[in-house]
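Lab manual, section 2.4: Encoding a predicted structure.

Procedure: take the sequence of the chain (173 residues), apply the prediction step described in section 2.3, and record the output as C-alpha coordinates. A sample record is shown.
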Amino acid sequence: MEKKSSDYLGKGLMLALVLIVVDLIGGFAHLRFESWFKWISTIIAMVAIIVFCIQFGTRQVDGVTFGKVFGYGFRISLIVSAIMVVYNLLSMYVIFPELIDQILTKTRTDLQAAGKLTDDQIDNQIAMTKKFMQPGILSIFIFLVTLFFNTIASLLGAAFAKKTEPDVFKNKS
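Recorded output:
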Protein backbone atom coordinates (compact mmCIF):
# COMPACT_ATOMS: atom_id res chain seq x y z
CA MET A 1 0.00 0.00 0.00
CA GLU A 2 1.27 3.43 -0.91
CA LYS A 3 1.82 5.92 1.86
CA LYS A 4 -0.26 9.06 1.68
CA SER A 5 1.46 11.69 -0.46
CA SER A 6 -0.76 14.68 0.28
CA ASP A 7 1.95 16.19 2.46
CA TYR A 8 2.95 18.24 -0.58
CA LEU A 9 0.65 20.99 0.73
CA GLY A 10 2.54 21.17 4.02
CA LYS A 11 5.90 21.08 2.24
CA GLY A 12 4.79 23.85 -0.13
CA LEU A 13 3.54 26.04 2.72
CA MET A 14 6.71 25.44 4.73
CA LEU A 15 8.96 26.26 1.79
CA ALA A 16 6.98 29.40 0.95
CA LEU A 17 7.26 30.54 4.58
CA VAL A 18 11.04 30.06 4.50
CA LEU A 19 11.28 32.06 1.26
CA ILE A 20 9.14 34.84 2.73
CA VAL A 21 11.37 35.04 5.82
CA VAL A 22 14.49 35.17 3.63
CA ASP A 23 12.96 37.98 1.55
CA LEU A 24 11.90 39.93 4.64
CA ILE A 25 15.41 39.64 6.04
CA GLY A 26 16.80 40.87 2.72
CA GLY A 27 14.34 43.74 2.63
CA PHE A 28 14.95 44.95 6.16
CA ALA A 29 18.72 44.42 5.89
CA HIS A 30 18.81 46.27 2.54
CA LEU A 31 20.33 43.28 0.74
CA ARG A 32 17.80 43.02 -2.08
CA PHE A 33 20.02 44.62 -4.69
CA GLU A 34 23.15 42.67 -3.79
CA SER A 35 24.02 40.38 -6.69
CA TRP A 36 24.49 37.32 -4.48
CA PHE A 37 21.22 37.84 -2.63
CA LYS A 38 19.10 37.82 -5.78
CA TRP A 39 19.66 34.08 -6.19
CA ILE A 40 19.35 32.94 -2.55
CA SER A 41 15.60 32.27 -2.68
CA THR A 42 15.85 30.43 -5.99
CA ILE A 43 18.66 28.22 -4.71
CA ILE A 44 16.85 27.49 -1.43
CA ALA A 45 13.63 26.61 -3.28
CA MET A 46 15.35 24.37 -5.82
CA VAL A 47 17.40 22.49 -3.22
CA ALA A 48 14.35 22.03 -0.98
CA ILE A 49 12.19 20.70 -3.82
CA ILE A 50 14.91 18.27 -4.90
CA VAL A 51 15.24 17.03 -1.31
CA PHE A 52 11.44 16.75 -0.93
CA CYS A 53 11.24 14.71 -4.14
CA ILE A 54 14.01 12.36 -3.03
CA GLN A 55 12.36 11.93 0.38
CA PHE A 56 9.03 11.25 -1.30
CA GLY A 57 10.63 8.55 -3.43
CA THR A 58 12.18 6.83 -0.42
CA ARG A 59 8.88 6.84 1.51
CA GLN A 60 6.90 5.07 -1.21
CA VAL A 61 6.39 1.36 -0.68
CA ASP A 62 4.36 0.54 -3.79
CA GLY A 63 6.69 1.51 -6.61
CA VAL A 64 8.30 4.82 -7.45
CA THR A 65 8.20 6.20 -10.95
CA PHE A 66 9.63 9.35 -12.45
CA GLY A 67 6.10 10.63 -13.07
CA LYS A 68 4.96 10.13 -9.48
CA VAL A 69 7.96 11.94 -8.05
CA PHE A 70 7.81 14.73 -10.62
CA GLY A 71 4.08 15.19 -9.97
CA TYR A 72 4.75 15.47 -6.25
CA GLY A 73 7.47 18.10 -6.80
CA PHE A 74 5.36 19.96 -9.34
CA ARG A 75 2.45 20.22 -6.89
CA ILE A 76 4.84 21.74 -4.35
CA SER A 77 6.07 24.10 -7.07
CA LEU A 78 2.53 25.28 -7.85
CA ILE A 79 1.77 25.95 -4.18
CA VAL A 80 5.02 27.86 -3.64
CA SER A 81 4.57 29.87 -6.84
CA ALA A 82 1.01 30.90 -5.94
CA ILE A 83 1.95 31.92 -2.40
CA MET A 84 4.98 33.87 -3.62
CA VAL A 85 2.82 35.85 -6.04
CA VAL A 86 0.57 36.96 -3.18
CA TYR A 87 3.53 37.69 -0.90
CA ASN A 88 5.48 39.61 -3.54
CA LEU A 89 2.50 41.83 -4.31
CA LEU A 90 2.02 42.51 -0.60
CA SER A 91 5.73 43.11 -0.26
CA MET A 92 5.95 45.60 -3.11
CA TYR A 93 2.76 47.51 -2.42
CA VAL A 94 2.30 47.25 1.37
CA ILE A 95 5.38 46.09 3.32
CA PHE A 96 8.04 47.84 1.21
CA PRO A 97 6.15 50.46 -0.83
CA GLU A 98 9.42 52.24 -1.62
CA LEU A 99 10.70 49.16 -3.44
CA ILE A 100 9.28 50.11 -6.83
CA ASP A 101 11.01 53.51 -6.69
CA GLN A 102 14.23 51.79 -5.59
CA ILE A 103 14.01 49.38 -8.53
CA LEU A 104 13.47 52.23 -10.98
CA THR A 105 16.36 54.24 -9.49
CA LYS A 106 18.66 51.19 -9.58
CA THR A 107 17.66 50.49 -13.18
CA ARG A 108 18.42 54.08 -14.19
CA THR A 109 21.77 54.03 -12.37
CA ASP A 110 22.78 50.73 -13.96
CA LEU A 111 21.81 51.91 -17.45
CA GLN A 112 23.70 55.17 -17.03
CA ALA A 113 26.76 53.35 -15.69
CA ALA A 114 26.77 51.06 -18.73
CA GLY A 115 27.02 54.17 -20.93
CA LYS A 116 25.52 52.49 -23.98
CA LEU A 117 22.18 54.32 -24.10
CA THR A 118 21.21 57.92 -24.56
CA ASP A 119 19.11 59.71 -21.94
CA ASP A 120 16.00 59.28 -24.12
CA GLN A 121 16.63 55.55 -24.46
CA ILE A 122 17.11 55.28 -20.71
CA ASP A 123 13.84 57.13 -20.13
CA ASN A 124 12.12 54.68 -22.50
CA GLN A 125 13.60 51.73 -20.59
CA ILE A 126 12.38 53.19 -17.29
CA ALA A 127 8.90 53.69 -18.75
CA MET A 128 8.88 50.05 -19.90
CA THR A 129 10.04 48.89 -16.47
CA LYS A 130 7.19 50.87 -14.87
CA LYS A 131 4.69 49.06 -17.10
CA PHE A 132 5.98 45.72 -15.83
CA MET A 133 5.43 46.88 -12.24
CA GLN A 134 1.64 46.78 -12.68
CA PRO A 135 0.17 44.14 -10.37
CA GLY A 136 -1.33 41.96 -13.14
CA ILE A 137 1.80 41.78 -15.25
CA LEU A 138 4.00 41.44 -12.18
CA SER A 139 1.85 38.57 -10.86
CA ILE A 140 2.12 36.60 -14.09
CA PHE A 141 5.86 37.21 -14.31
CA ILE A 142 6.52 36.17 -10.69
CA PHE A 143 4.36 33.07 -11.05
CA LEU A 144 5.98 31.92 -14.30
CA VAL A 145 9.57 32.56 -13.22
CA THR A 146 9.08 30.87 -9.86
CA LEU A 147 7.28 27.95 -11.46
CA PHE A 148 9.99 27.60 -14.13
CA PHE A 149 12.86 27.18 -11.66
CA ASN A 150 10.80 25.01 -9.31
CA THR A 151 9.76 22.77 -12.21
CA ILE A 152 13.41 22.28 -13.10
CA ALA A 153 14.00 21.30 -9.46
CA SER A 154 11.07 18.87 -9.65
CA LEU A 155 12.58 17.28 -12.76
CA LEU A 156 15.97 16.98 -11.05
CA GLY A 157 14.39 15.58 -7.90
CA ALA A 158 12.49 13.01 -9.93
CA ALA A 159 15.68 12.08 -11.76
CA PHE A 160 17.63 11.66 -8.50
CA ALA A 161 14.93 9.72 -6.64
CA LYS A 162 15.42 5.97 -6.53
CA LYS A 163 12.92 4.26 -8.84
CA THR A 164 11.32 0.94 -7.97
CA GLU A 165 8.80 -1.20 -9.76
CA PRO A 166 5.47 -1.80 -8.05
CA ASP A 167 5.03 -5.28 -6.62
CA VAL A 168 2.16 -6.55 -8.77
CA PHE A 169 1.89 -9.82 -6.83
CA LYS A 170 1.56 -8.15 -3.44
CA ASN A 171 -1.85 -8.43 -1.75
CA LYS A 172 -3.10 -11.02 -4.28
CA SER A 173 -5.05 -13.91 -2.85
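Check your result against the sample. Residues 66-95 form the longest helix (30 residues).
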